[in-house]
Design a protein that fits this description.
Length: about 300
């Protein structure tokens, strides 16, 4: 049974990672979860969360959030268009009311804010240089929160997350459909984090996140995208994807997929030790070896 004496956490965004986080934190916290769909209420209750009906796109529906929790975990992505994240703006407007009970906010951003570094290394000190609209919306969200948090006595931790993988989040469909990868000489570096590890890092930030701090929540492995696809293909006994030059691939893949494929950066994770949570899967290979025993 939930105890009213437990510290309160409000989850904003309850997709796959949010559900994993809620399940872990409900053991030690009273977890509230914002959802715009009543049909998800039972699913949220099953992981120990208390559903709150509201929609970040409709500020008038968020009144229940005011003064509700001391800690906020914000996983919700921005809306799909524009350069600004209006959802984050709507959230902090309501959180600023009701005596501002918030003392800690953890925002889940993306390493896409760094832009294309043509294979160069980046750290949390690297200036952001977003090149896609979705990355620009994330930068806007980060800047909005970084201005708001210290002005309201809120300890803000930003986790910048790369590509998330899990058994049900591997590029198997892409490999089976023979979608090509880039030639090795033109291939981009990609960065990863396993989903359970990410959920554990988010939970750790509740306890160990430093105020006004950015952390790259990635495994730190330096792997090119095509090599990642080859690793997955080999683990599942599939043919490796064909390799083509960038000029040909750009013509045959969607603009969104191409925007991911052309950005290359090696994201460092030296600050991850601040969260005092070693990764279960420090490389994709370790994960694939683990699941291959059960295939």
């Amino acid at each position: 049974m939930q105890s009213f004496g437990k510290p309160r956490i409000l989850m904003i965004g309850c997709g796959d990672i949010g559900m994993r986080v809620a399940k872990q934190l409900s053991q030690s916290h009273r977890v509230f979860a914002l959802t715009s769909q009543k049909t998800r209420f039972q699913e949220l209750r099953d992981v120990g969360a208390i559903p709150i009906l509201g929609n970040l796109d409709r500020p008038e529906s968020l009144w229940r959030l005011s003064g509700l929790a001391e800690t906020i975990i914000h996983l919700a992505p921005p809306q799909n268009t524009g350069l600004h994240d209006y959802r984050t703006r709507n959230l902090i407007q309501i959180l600023s009311q009701g005596g501002n009970a918030v003392r800690r906010l953890i925002y889940i951003s993306t390493t896409g804010v760094y832009g294309n570094h043509h294979g160069g290394k980046v750290s949390e000190l690297t200036p952001v240089n977003p090149q896609s609209e979705r990355a620009k919306r994330r930068v806007h969200a980060e800047r909005t929160l970084r201005l708001w948090a210290p002005a309201h006595g809120v300890a803000l931790t930003i986790l910048r997350v790369p590509g998330i993988y899990a058994l049900d989040r591997l590029p198997l469909e892409r490999i089976q459909s023979r979608t090509p990868a880039l030639l090795l000489a033109e291939d981009a570096y990609s960065n990863h984090i396993q989903s359970d590890d990410l959920a554990r890092l988010i939970c750790a930030a509740v306890y160990h996140g430093r105020p006004q701090r950015v952390i790259n929540a990635c495994d730190g492995e330096e792997t090119k995208m095509g090599d990642y696809f080859d690793e997955v293909a080999d683990a599942f006994g599939l043919d490796r994807p064909p390799r083509l030059p960038s000029a040909e691939i750009e013509k045959i893949v969607s603009p969104m997929l191409w925007s991911f494929m052309k950005e290359s950066r090696r994201v460092g994770n030296t600050r991850l030790k601040e969260l005092k949570t070693p990764l279960h899967y420090p490389t994709v290979a370790v994960f694939l070896q683990t699941i291959s025993r059960n295939l």
